[in-house]
TrEMBL record:
Keywords from the named record: NAD, Oxidoreductase
Matches recorded under Pfam families: Aldedh
CDD domains, A to Z: ALDH_F8_HMSADH
Residues passing through the membrane, by range: none
PANTHER family attached to this UniProt entry: 2-AMINOMUCONIC SEMIALDEHYDE DEHYDROGENASE
InterPro entries, A to Z: Ald_DH/histidinol_DH, Ald_DH_C, Ald_DH_CS_CYS, Ald_DH_CS_GLU, Ald_DH_N, Aldehyde_DH_dom, OHmuconic_semiald_DH
GO molecular function: oxidoreductase activity, acting on the aldehyde or oxo group of donors, NAD or NADP as acceptor
Identification of the protein by name: 2-hydroxymuconic semialdehyde dehydrogenase
């Protein structure tokens, strides 16, 4: 085995842990690195370093000084673009074309965006009349919350991690990050960039490991962590809430989804097909915002199914370096088993398999990789497991509908509430339907079009809280009111 080592990053230096675990390449399931698993000692050291850094130079810097350093972090990622790209693609198997357009540039941009935002955001102020006629002035101060635990998933590792670390640091906090065990590389590499950019030791710490009885749980149950921000599965989010309950610790949760697309007969079908192709199959379907339930108005149902099938069958499966490929493997063999179990379940439930439903043919060298076919089903009821449970693979079920009220009710008939896409050329209908969807995000005639100043997050079991723009500041700062009697 090639034994690259991926280490914890604590107090500005790389450290081994209590043991090692293997990191495998999802394209061929070969081990390419040993990852240092942090035990309690390493997590304690990371939290202590983060606490100390709050009192040190980081805690005394002006907003402008912090912002300048975070700009250097973003520039440092960009300067080492190829290294970050290679690391992200090796961990996830995703096409270079995707990671070079989304994961790495947005990962860098998250530092600049929040640094600039924090410099410019106002706080409120009130003048109060008092009986003596002299009055009082109130003004609000935003102060960092302290040490933030950041627990991340594997689907967009650098992007989703910096989406939390960017605002946390911009607001003056320090962080202890636990990347997913599947994607440890870019978080570790970022430690080098932090040092080069002049981020003081202890401000950014990374501990590797798993959830229960490992680094994840040690962070979320640590008494000296002030808040935890988490992106991942709804079940894990519940465990993290329970862990923090005794400390009355704030949590920000970005959780799962079972997102619908509503395609009306008056939609521009070229746009609807292009958008739905991306929302179902991008990143091999491993996007929290991805569409797994498509509802199409009956007059265009057959045409839509046929066109999406043609699109799916045109996808080219391959390794990150394959320039022709636009779909990689799933992140791991374990996740492949989960997705394939749903492919089997769909067949058992009597779904019509429009395309896919199994594993693709790949060259012998890739036979052990986590490959699955892009898959489309029709014919299942809204109560089937395929329509209710998040699969997180390159697949969707397409159902016909007959009227607007019906499709609004069916689109909302899920325990999740992350996002939906509405496809129609009728502007009144678009606004009317958008206002009725129980989701944190609604796209009309688009998908994944993100203005980073806008609120991002899910309702129902898709999460608690909103991130993005000033909404990130709500979580990463403590608002204190100062009342001055004149
Ligand atoms: P998981 O919930 O399995 O894991 C997320 C992170 O939590 C990992 O680092 C994991 O560690 C860690 N973890 C697991 N159990 C615990 C625990 N008890 N205490 C503390 N940490 C724990 O999610 P996935 O990584 O599988 O990511 C996919 C999920 O993320 C999907 O449900 C998807 O919808 C959701 N997601 C939501 C987004 C949103 O914005 N709403 C965006 C992207 C994804 P380890 O992996 O090492 O076990």
């Amino acid at each position: 085995m090639s034994t690259a080592k991926i280490l914890n990053f604590i107090d500005g230096a790389y450290r081994e842990g209590r043991s090692w675990f293997e990191k495998r390449n999802p394209c061929d399931n070969q081990v390419f690195a040993a990852v240092a698993e942090a035990g309690k000692d390493e997590v304690d050291a990371a939290v202590a370093a983060a606490r100390k850094a709050l009192r040190g130079p980081w805690g005394r810097m002006t907003v402008h000084e912090r912002a300048a350093i975070l700009h250097r972090v973003a520039d440092g990622i960009t300067a080492r673009f190829e290294e970050f790209l290679a690391a992200e693609c090796r961990d996830t198997g995703k096409p270079r074309s995707l990671a070079s357009h989304i994961d790495i540039p947005r990962g860098a941009a998250n530092f600049k965006i929040f640094a600039d935002l924090v410099k410019n955001v106002p706080t409120e102020s009130f003048v109060l009349d008092t009986p003596d006629g002299k009055g009082a002035v109130n003004y609000a101060l935003r102060r960092p919350k302290g040490v933030i635990g950041v627990i991340c998933p594997w689907n967009l590792p650098l992007l989703l991690m910096t989406w939390k670390v960017g605002p946390a640091l911009a607001c003056g906090n320090t962080v202890v990050v636990k990347p997913s065990e599947e994607t440890p590389s870019t978080a570790a590499l970022l430690g080098e960039v932090m040092n080069e950019a002049g981020v003081p030791p202890g401000v950014y710490n990374v501990v590797h490991g798993f959830g229960p009885d490992s680094a994840g749980e040690y962070i979320t149950s640590h008494p000296d962590v002030n808040a935890v921000t988490f992106t991942g599965e709804t079940r894990t989010g519940a465990a993290i809430m329970r862990a923090g309950a005794g400390f009355i610790r704030p949590v920000s949760l970005e959780l799962g989804g079972k997102n619908p697309a509503l395609v009306f007969a008056d939609a521009d079908l070229d746009k609807a097909i292009e958008g739905t192709m991306r929302s179902v199959f991008a990143n091999c379907g491993q996007v929290c915002l991805g569409t797994e339930r498509v509802f199409v108005e009956r007059p265009v149902f057959d045409q839509f199914v046929e066109r999406l099938r043609t699109g799916a069958e045109g996808l080219v499966i391959g390794t990150p370096d394959d320039k022709a490929a636009n779909m990689g493997p799933l992140v791991s063999r374990e996740h492949q088993s989960k997705v394939l179990s749903y492919y089997q379940k769909a067949r058992d439930l009597g779904a019509a398999v429009v395309t896919g439903g199994g594993t693709p043919e790949v060259p012998a060298a890739l036979a052990e990789g986590a490959w699955v076919q892009p898959t489309i089903w029709t014919g299942l009821g809204d109560d089937s497991a395929i329509m209710r449970e998040e699969i997180f693979g390159p697949c969707c079920h397409i159902s016909p509908f007959d009227d607007e009220d019906e499709v609004v009710a069916r689109g909302n008939d899920t325990e999740y509430g992350l996002c939906c896409s509405i496809w129609t050329e009728n502007a009144s209908k678009a606004h009317r339907v958008a206002s009725q969807m129980d989701t944190g995000l609604v796209w009309v005639n688009s998908w994944f079009l993100r203005d980073l100043r806008t609120p991002f997050g899910g309702s129902k079991r898709s999460g608690i809280g909103r991130e993005g723009g000033v909404h990130s500041l709500e979580f990463y700062t403590e608002l204190s009111n100062v009342c001055v009697k004149l």
